[in-house]
Amino acid sequence: MSYTHLNTKQRNIIEVLHKENYSTRHITKIIGVHHSSVARELKQVEGKYCASLAEENRKKKSSHKGRKTKISPEIVSTIQMQL
């Protein structure tokens, strides 16, 4: 089973339906994802769910992905100065 992230449209639908007090399972039937995906999404944001904040958090988290550099900041600045 492959995992796909929720897109912005799905997050907006979750926000609207959640505000209208739809159950998590009913929301999942409408957008076509597993109920745990919606439950996790609603749990991630503190307080009221906001699709734009959730999307912003996703972008922040994805920007930290990837391999960490092994060189020190001093070496980086030296290399940049010599380029």
Could you characterize what this model shows?
InterPro entries: IS30-like_HTH (IPR025246). Residues 2-44 form the Transposase IS30-like HTH domain. It holds the Pfam family HTH_38. This is Transposase IS30. With 83 residues, this protein is mainly α. The chain has one domain (8-82). It is 64% helix and 0% strand. The protein contains five helices and no strands. The chain has helices at residues 8-19, 24-31, 35-44, 51-63, 73-82. Helix 2 (24-31) crosses helix 3 (35-44).
Beta-strand content: under 5%
User: Gyration radius, to the nearest Å?
Assistant: 19 Å
Tell me how many strands there are. Answer: 0
> What level of helicity do the residues show?
55-70%
Largest sheet, in brief, is: none
List segments where confidence is low: pLDDT < 50 over at least 5 consecutive residues.
Answer: none
- Structural class by SSE content: mainly alpha
Distance between the termini: 46 Å
Q: Given the structure, what is the number of helices? A: 5
Please give the domain count.
Answer: 1
Mean pLDDT: 89
- The coarse overall form would be elongated
Topology as H/E string?
HHHHH
Summarize the structure.
It comes from Fusobacterium necrophorum DJ-2. The chain is mostly helical and 83 residues long. 64% of the residues lie in helices and 0% in strands.
Strand and helix map with partners:
Blueprint lengths: L7 H12 L4 H8 L3 H10 L6 H13 L9 H10 L1
Helix pairs in contact: 1-4, 2-3
Pfam families: HTH_38
Organism: Fusobacterium necrophorum DJ-2
Protein name: Transposase IS30
